[in-house]
């Protein structure tokens, strides 16, 4: 069986790029560059368990990083609206559009627009790429049942220390920054290295290698 990185990418239908719990600037730059190179070629998403801070704002595509693991399912929640106020919910198809109607009990008001909260959940990805970290404990999201059926791959400067019950392949190179390794993997996988990806990689190399 060919376990090369390029073969894993080409055989995957959907890919999730997952950052560690406390990612460095270099790690975020590398992950974003890889995500941008995959976009348009594969169904790909990028996630971080912690929100992006101001220091990452100069990276291209940082707004694409979500705290949600996947977007397989859409959840509609009425925040601050008592469920007992709802009489019933009806679903209809009008033309090619789906319509959901919430009908409150007599004398009560329906949920207001500002109370509607939309979130995504569920991972459809069959390949998860862990970026950075030195141990599987650096990725709290690995405990999610949503990832149980996915193949897990790690890319980093050091080999990932994984628990015995976790099957994680690790691709490493002794380089000064993770962005250097991602540059190599993008080329090996025959992915496009466009201006946006290159800009992020240069920023990551500068930061990771201390100039």
General description of the model:
- There is one protein chain.
- Helices cover 22% and strands 27% of the residues.
- The protein has 211 residues and is α/β, with parallel strands linked by helices.
- A hairpin with a 2-residue loop joins β5 and β6.
- α2 runs parallel beside α3.
- The relative contact order is 0.22.
Which key terms come to mind for this protein?
about 210 residues; alpha/beta; 6-stranded parallel beta sheet; 10 strands; elongated
Element order: H for helix, E for strand? HEHEEEEEEEEEHH
Total helical elements: 4
Strand count, sense and closure of the main sheet? 6 strands, parallel
Give the averaged pLDDT, no decimals: 88
> Could you tell me how far the N terminus lies from the C terminus, measured between alpha carbons in angstroms?
40 Å
Low-confidence stretches: none
Query: What is the alpha-carbon Rg in Å?
Result: 20 Å
Walk across the major sheet and give the strand order. 3-2-1-8-9-10
Oligomeric state of shown chains:
single chain
Strand content: 25-35%
- Could you tell me the number of beta strands? 10
